[in-house]
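Q: Okay, next protein. This is DegV family protein from [Clostridium] ammoniilyticum. I've checked the sequence twice, so it should be correct. Can you predict the 3D structure?
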Amino acid sequence: MEKIAIITDSCSDIKKEYRELYDIHVLPIQIQYDGKSYRDGVDITSNDIYAIQDEKVIKTSSPVGEDLFNLLDQLKDKGYTHVIGLFLSSGISGTGNQMRLFCQTYEKLKCHIVDSQSASVGLGVIAVSLAKYREEGKSFDELIEIADFLCHQNYAYFSIDDLNYLQKGGRIGKASAFLGTTLKIKPILSFEKENGEIYVPAKVRGSKKVKSKLIDLIESHLEENPHQKFALAIADANNLEERNILEGMLKERFPQFTYIIDGHVGAALSCYLGSGLLGVAIQFLPE
């Protein structure tokens, strides 16, 4: 009988309560500065990053192989037979590819690695959604097909206050066109479906219009798929008050959602996004 584990990385920003409720295993991204290495969400937080990111050179790297192999050994000991790994978009990170290479050398479990082409709660809602289908009794092969559907039918949007952190980290992609733009113009970031890179699908003038634009972007996808079931996700980075307002607006505008999850941006993504982020994602669900 198949027992299937779902693994993701800490850039999924999945809250502890969701990890425990849906049995999702999270590998911490590595964060380095001043010659030391820290594990995202384990011994460093986003608030730690906010306090130093204007003064320190901070780098991130994929979870270490030892952490993955230890986790796989633990899963094997608990009776798991299969693993599906969902990782940060390959357009901004090599984590997924590295995990794939590691898993190829581990023969005790059957593993399949998926490129989410997303990040933060965009990735998080994919993992939660897949876990829900697993609880329905879907097989490993069925879950692989569902994971592919979820990743291609997932649309995440983020408004941030400062693009310079993305530029310093070399993850800015096509958003570089907005560097140096007046602070009154706020770009909305997302991920291209072709390659998972960051691009700018919209921009607004002034912070007060951000929430409405995020909702309009979600609505545009619903207009194209009016009868499709969907879930929602919402994120913030040290911006809880605005996040709560946005959540209320989402629930009022789209009361037909199947479920909604929320999360706070962790240390690893904070290295590139800074504080002040607001993010939303819509996840269409297979019938």
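A: Here is a summary of the prediction. The chain has ten helices and 13 strands. The radius of gyration is 18 Å.
Q: Noted. On to the next one.
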